[in-house]
Amino acid sequence: MPENIDVTGARRDQPRRGQEHFVAPVDEGGLGAVDAVSTTQAPKSLWGDAWAHMRGNVLFWVAGAVIALVVVVAVAPGLFTSIGPRACDLSQSLSGPAAGHPFGFDFQGCDIYSRTVYGARASVVVGVLATAMVVVIGTIVGAIAGYFGGWFDTLLSRLTDIFFAVPLVLAAIVIMSLMSTRTSFTVALVLSLFGWPQIARITRGTVMSVKNNEFVTAARSLGMGRVGILLRHVLPNSTAPIIVYATVALGTFIVAEATLSYLGIGLPPSIVSWGGDISKAQNSIRVAPEILFYPAGGLALTVLGFIMMGDVVRDALDPKARKR
Amino acid sequence: MRWYIGRRLLQVIPVFLGATLLLYALVFLRPGDPVAALGGERGLPEAVQEQIRERYNLDKPFLVQYLLFLKGVFTLDFGVDFRGREIVDVIAGAFPVTIQLAVMALIIEAVFGIGLGLVAGLRKGGIFDGSVLVISLLVIAVPTFVIGFVLQFLLGVKAGLFPVTVGRDPNFESLLLPAIVLAAASFAYVLRLTRTSVAENLSADYVRTARARGLTRSRVTGRHVLRNSLIPVVTFLGGDLGGLMAGAIVTEGIFNINGVGGTLYQAITRGENVTVVSLTTVLVIVYILANLLVDLLYAALDPRIRYA
């Protein structure tokens, strides 16, 4: 049957008798796209689709490059500077840039470039640790609450509400000030203790909507166990919003760590951190305001990288937002 | 709707009990004896220590301590701090400034966030949209304390436009710069939220219908797009009031404001656990009430929530 003939056998681009309105041929309206989809080919997966979209996005490469750079600096700071962050010379206090010392010296006479490079590790370690813990706790709690429902849901949701009711920075300040041992791990632990409710809420909501899909019913009718379905089918299909939130949360945790270190209750001075260096630079802001720029810049660039990446991934995973 | 309100109100009770118990346990169940530490190196006589323990209920089991504390919260009798001041007076002295600061910050972020977000959302993809988006990202990426003392240094110390610190008698003028600093991060979120929401609603069917009916541009924007776009923004702002008051600790420290943050910080450094727990409890109550208000507001504005 020729394409422009419809079931009644009339040519569609010519008005039928009694038909007052022009009806556009299929390929001119939006329906053409529907017909063009091949039904035999395997459909593109959500992630494949997202990747194809991200690849063409400049912001993705910029954010990716920033994150990659920060991670490399954090893992191997020695590659970027041969001067130690604690090789300080008081006679150089607050003196400007010199050969081999591109950023100059801080109040203690330490090389600012070296301290900025070595400071990346503390931020990245705390950020990654806290995010990992938050994702694990939040996903487990949220998945159980959303998937099993009933009493589990009531109990776990109230528990989530309780931890949600305590503001993150406030709780972190109160607890960290009472801690006697302060390491990257304890800071991350305290931040994750009050940071997981968000992920739990997001996971619960997603799991609740995913578990009503046909493929879950299909798996159940094939005799799969409830836990098996949760692990094999529901969770893998709920990861998108968790990953988006986790990317942004990593930036938030880095800021929170810097805030604590700035207040003097985060990482101890023995660990080189941007927050601590910002706090020290504040003391000499009237004499040498430029010192502040380097640790603050490193911090801002890192956080910017993660927030931008979160934005890009969110856009890529949301076909509705992408169309416009 | 009545069902929804009732259920939501009942939920506040376990959350309040749980959150206060959690904070109380974290502060009081840690190792170390604050009373023994009071006397410094020489230590206090055993009898005096006993007396102090009795006065602060520290000799009773943990759960009894917590219940006595809870009773104090409801009767507005938090006890006395280590320097002999009624903690209720300490709270009453600290909160007005912080509330004023938080409300000023809320107004600033609402006006500028919604205004710029609306324009950016209406012209999504344009130059204005792009530059506003970049600025908002920068504001989020630079921590509040850096924005705080950089602005303090540039506008206060160098330019002399604002008072550098607030000090004893806070007024509108001296609180303006701290409020701007406090509002900065949330401003960026409000802006981004408004922008996405407006851009999303612009392509909604009801907007097309409104345009097809021949309504003027300003009427479509004001009555249809803006009203519906503001639902998530308003709820964010409601919840942010509690967040701002808790987040004021850093800002108050930078500008030397004797609000909740400053008082809390002093209490922490002096090891006055009772004051710390009392202040944080009040903050948590504010935070819980703000979240409650948001949920009720959300249900009132968006029928899809209350019938879900």
Keywords:
heterodimer; A: 324 residues; mainly alpha; MetI-like fold; 14 helices; 64% helix; 0% strand; globular; B: 308 residues; 2 domains
Provide an overview of this structure.
The complex is a heterodimer of chains A (324) and B (308). Chain A is mainly α. Chain A has one domain: MetI-like (MetI-like fold, Orthogonal Bundle). Chain A has helices at 31-36, 46-55, 58-75, 112-148, 150-164, 168-178, 184-193, 196-210, 214-221, 226-234, 239-263, 274-283, 290-317, 319-322. In chain A, helix 4 (112-148) packs across helix 8 and helix 5 (150-164) packs antiparallel against helix 8 (196-210). Chain A is globular, with a radius of gyration of 27 Å. The model of chain A has no long low-confidence stretch (mean pLDDT 83). With 308 residues, chain B is mainly α. Chain B has 13 helices and no strands. Chain B has helices spanning 2-28, 34-38, 46-55, 62-74, 87-122, 127-141, 144-158, 172-202, 205-212, 217-255, 260-270, 273-301, 303-306. In chain B, helix 10 packs antiparallel against helix 12 (273-301). The longest helix of chain B is centred in the C-terminal third of the chain and has 39 residues, at 217-255. Chain B is flat and about 85 Å long. Chain B starts with a helix and ends with a helix. The relative contact order of chain B is 0.13. At the A-B interface, helix 5, helix 6, helix 11 and helix 13 of A face helix 1, helix 6, helix 7, helix 8 and helix 10 of B.
Strand content of chain B: under 5%
Q: What does the main sheet of chain B amount to?
A: none
- Give the uncertain stretches of chain B in residue-range form: none
The sequence of SSEs of chain A as H and E is HHHHHHHHHHHHHH
CATH class of chain A: Mainly Alpha
| Secondary-structure-derived class of chain A | mainly alpha
What is the N-to-C order of secondary-structure elements of chain B (H for helix, E for strand)?
HHHHHHHHHHHHH
CATH topology of the largest domain in chain B: MetI-like fold
